[in-house]
Amino acid sequence: MALGAAIALLEEEGPDRLTTRAVARRIGYTAGSLYFVFRNRDDLVLRVNERTLDELRAELDGVLDGQKDSDARLHALGRCYLAFAERHPTRWRLVFEHDVLDVDQVPEAMRRKIDAFFQLIAAEIARRSPSLDPDAIRRAAQSLWGGVHGIAILSITGKLRAGGERPAEALVEDLVATYLRGLDRAR
Is 84 strand, coil or helix? Predict the structure, then answer.
């Protein structure tokens, strides 16, 4: 219940308004009672971010159903990632922009979720380019998704319009296709 209220508050009012006190007010609890559930605001944000990552991962897994070709799967993942960021810009940005005061506070489960995302991309690259060594595959996954992420952030912040007329989805398609052609040449 508290996480649902936190997500609604975040989407309606933005990250600056996301406090344990505001969440407590929304669900009719006292702020003190929420500290039985969340250690502090960082813990609340981390839990919201975990939920966001779970939803993103479910959507990414969903677009892979029925897709056999690795190139098509990588294109579908790129489109899905961008679409999720555009539908949930505040939540999506909070995953990447929230500075945790104590790095040890980042739950191991969240670290595994982030790593599993890169493993998903790396697995598709490995399927299409099996001659690459594991370090090159991991680097390729991080490089390619760094580019997709960059297009997504430029799109949701309105900065993409300053650089041209191409829609973000077309840029993601171009980036993935060009990167994959580059991998083919590097073999």
Answer: helix
Burial class (CB in 10 A: 0-12, 13-18, 19+), 175: middle
What is the distance, to the nearest Å, from the Cα of residue 158 to the centroid of all Cα atoms in its chain?
18
d(CA 36, CA 20): 11
- Cβ neighbours of 101 (radius 10 Å): 8
Q: Residue 33: how many CB atoms within 10 A of its CB? A: 12
pLDDT, tens digit, 9 for 90 and up, residues 27-68 = 999 888 888 888 888 888 989 999 999 999 999 999 999 889
Beta carbons within 8 Å of 2's beta carbon, 6+ residues apart: 23, 24, 27, 29, 34, 37, 38, 44
**Which residue, among 155, 156, 124, has the nearest Cα to 140 in the 3D structure?**
124
Q: CB–CB of 100/42 below 8 Å? A: yes
- Report all structural domains of the chain as residue ranges with CATH numbers, in order of start: 1-38 (1.10.10), 40-186 (1.10.357.10)
Query: Is 107's pLDDT higher than 90?
Result: no
Sign of the C-alpha dihedral computed for residues 66, 70, 76 and 77 taken in this order = positive
From the list 97, 131, 94, 119, the residue with the least C-alpha distance to 6 is 94
Contact criterion met (CB below 8 Å) for 131 and 187 = yes
CB 154 within 8 A of CB 163: yes
